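Onboarding guide, step 5: your first structure request.
Type a short instruction followed by the sequence, for example:

Predict the 3D structure of this protein.
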Amino acid sequence: MKLTTMTQLTLDGVMQGNGGTSDEDRRNGFERGGWALGKGDDETRELIKQTYQRAGAFLFGRRTYELFAGSWGTMTAEDAPGWEPVVRALNTRPKYVASATLAASAWAGTTVLPAGLATAVADLKARPGGELQVHGSGTLTRWLLENDLVDEMTLIVVPLVLGQGARLFPDAGPDLALDLIESRVDSKGVTIQVYRPAGRPQYVTP
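The system replies with structure tokens like these:
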């Protein structure tokens, strides 16, 4: 499986608390949750639905997994008009969680990955069928990028500057070169950028 990531973030790189409720994630005093609600046009929403339908399996960090399990994991297709493909994909396809603290889950089809995450993820990638998709899960996404395990990443950038909140890329971290393979902007100013990791950047030497 090809490992792909999809992340919604603001122009200043914040990905925290993008969901439909203001109190989804209030870590570190974050008070500007729900910032992605209503952003993006019909074409962008269709792209998101099509992405979920390509998944052969899902890989989550613990926090995002628990948010998804408590929302999408409690729904049937009838509960989410217009988002039926996402509900079906999440509730019928295998889900893997990278966590040292989550022992088990009631969400059907869930496996908590053992210690030795790099080996476990590489084993999943070696399996046939669709994409191994990571949605949200910022800490996990950064770790996967650092360990050269990401094949393709999609950034959905909402034209907002929040000025607070956890960012996908911290102020200090490993560097990364990317090849842009697709880009578009929707009618509401949301940009969708698809990248392939391309090793480390080259710098001018003295």
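Each response can be followed by summary notes, for example: The longest strand covers residues 2-10.
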